[in-house]
Amino acid sequence: MPTLHTVNKSPFERTAFGSCLKHLAAGDAVLVLEDGVVGLRKATAFAGDLDAVSGDHKLYALGPDLDARGLKADDLVSGITVVDYDGFVDLVAEHDRTQAWL
Amino acid sequence: MSMDEEIDTEVVKKFLYVNRKAPYGTIYALESLEVVLISAAFDQDVSLAFLDDGVYQLVDGQDTKAIGMKNFSPTYRALGDYEITKLFVEKESLDERGLTEDDLMEIMYEDEDDDWAEKPSIRIVSRDEMAAIMADQDVVLSF
Q: Which of A56, A73, B102, B142 is at a distance of 20 to 30 A from A79, taking alpha carbons?
């Protein structure tokens, strides 16, 4: 019964992203959007937290929000799947529930 | 099908309200409580989660006189009357803030299925247990 978790806040400003990663159940996925995408850049202080969960969980980022912040796929920690708005809708439909970490 | 039968067969969904903000600094905690109270009218299976700064919402002895805002903390004690009796509080979030269960309000409810015995609504859970509770819901609403 997997959950799609969405995170829209920077991990450097709020605790939402970090707390989300600590509450993932088996099979859960995380979609990062809006300011949350700044937490996906490699070599940040937060990257280790992402690496710790990326083996067990699918991590997605919303492409338009990466573009808006000048982030390229090469800039990100490994294992991130970039999706567009249609992909966002598909992810919501594929999971049993969506939990938004505000 | 009669009206009664329709009501009897209505699907009950599990709703979890996730509270992660301290009270008074923002409107989130009060808005969450308002929505929870409204939800009580719909006969769903409602649980509340308190984690991160959300645990401050349940701290005993809140006094808001000097900041000119309504102290809404006593309302949590009324939730039992609306059959909202599952208030899950995360142990790690308390620990990180130097709080213990003793710092929280006493919130009781009367268990209809156990001869109206008084029982605590607050249940301290681990972070792992909280993740499992989240995974067990039909709908999660975050504040």
A: B142
CA–CA separation, B97 and B10 (whole Å): 42
B35 touches chain A (CB under 8 A): no
**pLDDT value at residue B110:** 95
For residue A28, list chain B residues with Cβ-Cβ distance below 8 A. 135
| Nearest by CB: B135 against A1, A98, A100 | A1
CA distance to A25, A87, B28, B30, B97, per residue, from A56 (Å): 10, 21, 32, 36, 29
